[in-house]
Specification:
9 helices; five-stranded mixed beta sheet; alpha/beta; Beta-carbonic Anhydrase, Chain A
């Protein structure tokens, strides 16, 4: 009986240890981070598969889902618009646990967005953040229109107005120029956000890039 009790005690200790390790993996830093250059290549390759309709549909199995119970190690953060026509996992042909996605209309930044990105960078070890704008963005279009906007939507259009101001000094399509300027300003916000993101960028541990999704052909193009 004593031997049985001792065995149960040892088993309990092992269960607790495994649980502790799992918790550490779930919230700790990425133990095998992908470099920003490799992450960009993975996104480019996945988008090309999407454009060519030659999907691999990686990491979408039951085994992958079970593997991720212990923790996540995404290779990139994607901040993009809430628009239903550009789900990142599809347009980059990725799967479960590959991308840390933050979505908000107009891909603007508030404290919740910033905190989400900081978490992915500081605790999950992500080395690449992509700010992804897109063609015919409705939120940007609302800001460009100058029409009276309901109060909560107005919080989005107000965040886009600095980009609109820049776009008005440029030649070409006002909406498209505003979309691109908005992406550039958000990239700048991340690069200068203290204390976390700016420090990681300064130390070469993080790269923030801007990109543009063409809804007509499905291509994601760099705005570097």
């Amino acid at each position: 009986m004593k031997k049985l009790t001792k065995s149960l005690f040892v088993l309990l200790i092992l269960v607790l240890l495994v649980g502790t390790v799992s918790c550490v993996l779930a919230v700790g830093e990425n133990t095998n981070p992908v470099t920003a250059a490799i992450a960009i290549q993975k996104l480019n390759d996945g988008n090309q598969r999407f454009v060519d309709a030659k999907f691999l549909h990686p990491n979408q199995t039951t085994a992958r889902r079970i593997e991720l119970v212990a923790g996540q190690q995404p290779f990139a953060v994607i901040l993009t618009c809430s628009d239903s026509r550009l789900p990142p996992e599809i347009i980059f042909d990725q799967g479960l646990g590959d991308l840390f996605v933050v979505r908000i209309a107009g891909n603007v930044v508030d404290d919740a967005v910033l905190g989400s990105v900081e978490y992915a960078v500081e605790h999950l070890g992500v080395t690449l953040v992509m700010v992804l704008g897109h063609e015919r963005c409705g939120a940007v279009g609302a800001a460009v229109s100058g029409a009276e906007i309901p109060v909560h939507i107005n919080s989005l259009t107000n965040a886009i107005k600095p980009a609109l101001k820049i776009a008005k000094t440029q030649n070409g399509d006002l909406l498209d120029n505003t979309i691109r300027a908005n992406v550039a300003l958000v990239v700048q916000q991340f690069n200068n956000s203290k204390p976390i993101l700016a420090e990681f960028v300064h130390d070469g541990k993080l790269k923030v890039v801007g990109a543009y999704y063409d809804m007509d052909d499905g291509t994601v193009r760099s705005l570097e």
